[in-house]
Design brief:
- The chain contains eight helices and twelve strands.
- It has 265 residues and is α/β, with parallel strands linked by helices.
- The chain has two domains: 136 residues, 3-Layer(aba) Sandwich (Creatine Amidinohydrolase, Chain A, domain 1), CATH 3.40.350; 118 residues, Alpha-Beta Complex (Creatine Amidinohydrolase).
- The strands form three sheets. A six-stranded mixed beta sheet has the order 4-3-2-1-5-6, sandwiched between helices.
- Helix 6 packs antiparallel against helix 7.
- The longest helix has 24 residues.
- It is elongated and about 65 Å long.
Length: 265
């Protein structure tokens, strides 16, 4: 994922986050991310860096330049050169480094409950006042620029092409791995990297496609990917004719929709 973000777009993102800082009387924001799927995006949004391994933090002060902080015990946690932030820190204990930088300050933390490593939380909380900042950060980045909307559209385009590749390969009796493979190949070639999370409905549950999983006459692929710009999208469509319990659920849904429509017309 090597999408280049224009400096004006970076300034816009930082400006939105800093306005949220001002509204909540913060001196700085620490954005946490990890390789856990879905928890990496905030760091990418603030730095351009895609976490492949372990975790990372972005520090954005109210004034001054940002820093991106990596754990020193894992020198490679991704392609560090993709980050636009010049101050790249490899700290033995990132929480201690952040604590020294932010001592005595009021700090908003994105990922405080779910992402921040325990040892880093302990060290940082002993030095600074920590404020949960998930909702506020998400609201700040919720308004998309034209650059981001183009990235979303690109992700949709890639995922739609992946769906057509899945559909072309789909045939009752083939394995889920065989059918999903062409779509996965397309996603890698399109620059999605590791940002894919694709499954196939098996009975009542979605599952990772496997070579011993034989697809039947009814199938629902759930394709979730992020294109080179890092914006996640999902495409999910039902293929074939449902039967049994699934058909009963479909009939019930149709009946309830008809009744609801009749009640308001």
């Amino acid at each position: 994922m090597d999408t280049v973000i224009d400096p004006a777009e970076v300034d816009r993102r930082y400006g939105a986050v800093r306005r949220a800082m001002d509204e909540h009387d913060l001196d700085a924001v620490v954005v946490a991310g990890s390789e856990y799927t879905g928890f990496e995006g905030a760091v990418t949004y603030m730095s351009g860096f895609v976490i492949v391994h372990r975790y990372a933090y972005v520090l954005l002060p109210r004034e001054g330049d940002p820093s991106v902080v990596f754990p020193a015990e894992a020198r490679y946690v991704g392609e560090h050169g993709t980050a636009w932030i010049e101050d790249q820190v490899f700290a033995d204990r990132p929480g201690e480094w952040l604590g020294e930088r932010l001592a005595g300050k009021r700090v908003g933390v994105y990922g405080l409950d779910y992402v921040v490593a325990v040892r880093d939380f302990v060290a940082l909380s002993q030095k600074a006042e920590l404020v949960p900042f998930d909702v506020e950060f998400d609201l700040a980045r919720a308004v998309k620029s034209d650059v981001e909307l183009d990235s979303v559209r690109d992700s949709v385009r890639i995922n739609t092409e992946g769906f057509w590749a899945f559909l072309e390969a789909y045939e009752p009796g083939r394995t889920a791995a065989e059918v999903l493979a062409p779509a996965e190949r397309l996603f890698v070639e399109a620059g999605c990297g590791r940002l894919t999370m694709n499954m196939v409905l098996v009975g009542p549950e979605f599952a990772i496609a496997r070579g011993d999983m034989v697809l039947r006459d009814f199938c629902i692929p759930s394709l979730e990917i992020a294109g080179p710009g890092g914006h996640w999208v999902e495409v999910s469509r039902a293929l074939g004719r449902p039967d049994g319990e699934v058909q009963g659920m479909l009939d019930a849904h149709g009946d309830s929709s008809t009744a609801a429509t009749a009640s308001v017309t």
